[in-house]
# Entry
Amino acid sequence: MADETKREFAWGPREENVLIGKDIQRIDGIAKATGRAKYTADINTPGTLFAKLLTSNQAHAKIKMLNIEPAKAVPGVRAVYVFPTAFDVETGESKEIRWDGAPIVAVAADRPEIAADGVRAIEIEYEPLPFFVDEEDMEGAEKAQEETGEKRIKKLPKSSKGDVEAAQSEAAVVHTGYYGIHTISHCCLEPHGSHCEWDGEEKLNVHLSTQNVSGTPGQFAGPLGLEQSAVEVIGNYEGGGFGSKFAADEWGLACAVLAKEAGKPVRLMLDRATDLKVAGTRPSGFIEITIAADAEGNIVSWDSNLWGSSGMGGGTVSPNQIPYVFDFPNVDRNATGLICNTGPNRAWRAPPHPQLCALTQTAMDDVAAKLQMDSYDLFMNNLQHVSKAFKERSEVYAEEMKIAAEMIDWKAKWHPHGKGGGNGAVKRGLGMALHTWGGGAGPCTCLLKVHPDGSVETFLGSQDLGTGTRTVIAIVMAETFGLTLDDVKVNLGSSKYPKSGASGGSITVGGVSSAHRMAAQSALWKIFDLVAAKYNVGAETLSAKGGQILSSGKPVCSWKQAAALVGPMPLEIQGATEKEGLTSSRVGGVQMVDVSVDTETGKVSINDFVCVQDCGLIIDELTARSQVYGGMIMGISYALTEERIMDNKTGRYMNADLENYKLPRIGDIGNLQVKMYQPASEYNRGVVGLGEPPVISPGAAISNAVANATGVRVPVLPLTPQRVLDALQKGGAA
# Structure
């Protein structure tokens, strides 16, 4: 028998990999394309009822009167639920409604249109209260606080180091600017919702669109008075989450209560308007910055006053993480949160890095312009100031910048801000930005089974958000056992399977990869020991490849013959996240973009958009590139069009639909190029998460490209045509 204490978990030499690091199509692609894959909204067990919500049309109010009896009287309505966060049915007392779209009543009926009739039948009267929704207007918030006595200003801790004034007095250039980035809403392709079905009085089955299969049963069980084991959450497929789907949510609990009251299954999916209003937003940020640099472009000081809002919480975008990526020697930071009657904040892909990047690296680009210096050179010179947490990535940034510059032909195309040519009114420019992220492995446990017939399967309570998690797991197992993807099966998406962590923070790929590599190698070593005993070879000489067991490269037996040695019952191995030698953390990336700006219409068009990204060892490069493409497209969206628009007069969310909440179409994307940076040093780091990093830089890079094209900074994202034209007029370039 081989001594297992000497065996170490490892990925092995890159050149020996058959599947890992290659372009592998997703194993669930056909199921999704044909409709065989069932999402939450597809669950339609016999007798399923359909639920609709009555939501508040007030930004701030109390309910004077609520009568749900007319809804109950509508033929086909089977259950009505009043949200306790809005109204206490027992006491008749209203809670405070604090934003437009807050859920008040849910109605379940035989058909969706009947549920809508039930909602319309509800009688409700509001007592309006003062509200404030303008997150950019600091003076307005202060005035509202004075006039109403309601707290609207929340001072956040200030921080400083060094001597900013002295550094400014000795600097070659001092630049003062105003920058901002507006709130955006979560806009997942699949809205939030669930399908709840009771099995008797004490067992609840929930199909839930969630990023947290293992973690949500308790969120149902506690409020419903159940044992956690009595709730099974199933999430086989999900149409995106991006940080907004970790919880059961109050509408999930409403669905369960409606199902119990009606004695039938209930499906409650938020409509698009409600989803945009209440399912989570990314906080805004606005900043006044004074930044100073020496003649070589080395930034010597940073002085900023930041404000913004995360809704009623009164927070903003992590002021102590500004400046982003960089840590300049002299820094003063002040920050204020505005308390606004707007929907709740939730994590949004890479929180809060996109805002931090946009607020920091636009100001840096303006310093380069003031010095009449190539922005590329300024960023390269300031890599010496990369913060301590990411200092080891500074050399990676330098290499990625060189690669990206070659891909976009930066040196040939670059010109001083506003000095570029173009076709008449259309001006062209370049911009860049860089970003960082953690991406360390999250918790994961799995049960891996090797069956006597040679088939292999695994069970885990993780979820696939549409990112290719199933495929990554299958690749790791197939590579380890020397099998094809058809020989392995991945079972996930049920809370009854071994627990895995929520998918957030780009931690899933590291967790599931390392857990399955460990489990698969442990199983393989046991099988090697059985093969060694039967065929009288040294276990330490054995390897698995191409469906065979080899000894020093020579065939000993087939995989199926080896698997049969486990006996009549499957070989079962528990796997758990193993970080040592299999995973790492910290990634970096560089993005450069070439845009055209029509100075007559204000329209910004993407010509070429380049990203060079590292993420350690890549399991499936096709899936990895797909993640980067998705991040770049989301970045184009928040940079150019995506914005929640609030009405200061009514407090209403004005564009809560897919017609006016502007997302990019195919023609808005331009030419995207992705290069995964993966020298041997990256491969040897192990697996690092990738989901969030590529969405961080686009806002800053695109804004910088527009400034380079026109010579005028459009200070606030998104760069809508109106904002571009306004900036051009103020800057004298129109």
Summary: The radius of gyration is 28 Å. The mean pLDDT is 96.
